[in-house]
Amino acid sequence: xxxxxGVVASVVYRVVxxxxxxxxxxxxxxxxxxxxxxxEGLEGVYYRVGAVRSFLGAVxxxxxxxxxxxxxxxxxxxxxxxxxxxxxxxxxxxxxGRSGGAGAEVAAPLVVQEGAVLGGPVRVGGLPGAxxxxxxxxxxxxxxxxxxxxxxxxxxxxxxxxxxxxxxNFVDPANDEPYPWYHEPGSGQGPVVDLPAAPSDDVVSAxxxxxxxxxxxxxxxxxxxxxxxxxxxxxxxIASELxxxxxxxxxxxxxxxTINKD
Length: 262
Known about the structure:
two-stranded antiparallel ribbon; globular; 56% helix
């Protein structure tokens, strides 16, 4: 297992400065994420996607630290970190687009065929302008967005008690009306939590606040939403430690994964 992860880390390390290559790898890895048909299945999916997102970021941070130590200038480093963010944004976008809804339209140009994780190149310059703009949003590459996607999948997949999906749990305090991305179960208007293609920070925060609220927690007796949140966090933590070691810093004690830099 560690040897296989080391091979992938070494490949990512070699391409981490190339925008098209980073996008291709990120979209390929995200395209392999399976749907979770049960609470346990969905938890496993988001543990893995949390780990992969963190893995991509950790390998990038190793190379970034080396560039800085080698005297790279501010402009070069700004470009480098922009590429790393783009990779994470592509990854979370494709993960979110798996379940349909508005996000699928943005994810479509990024999805690669099964078995083409490191092939089927994606050219950023060839992507629709709207897709590129969505990938540059403030939450596009965030762990919080992964958590919001997990909550949406649980709600839309019938894994959350119906009482937790009642309109009173989705009221926008700004106007005392249900959020526009919410549809009452059984209304036939669309998914219960129908996230827009590029969720804003406010939308992501609202979905997470719903999942974390005391009222919903009391109804969610099997802790479906809490377990999903923990799965994303735990996947992130273990992947970071495997690459960066216990201190989570590039250049510190090495992790269990060996990156071949030759």
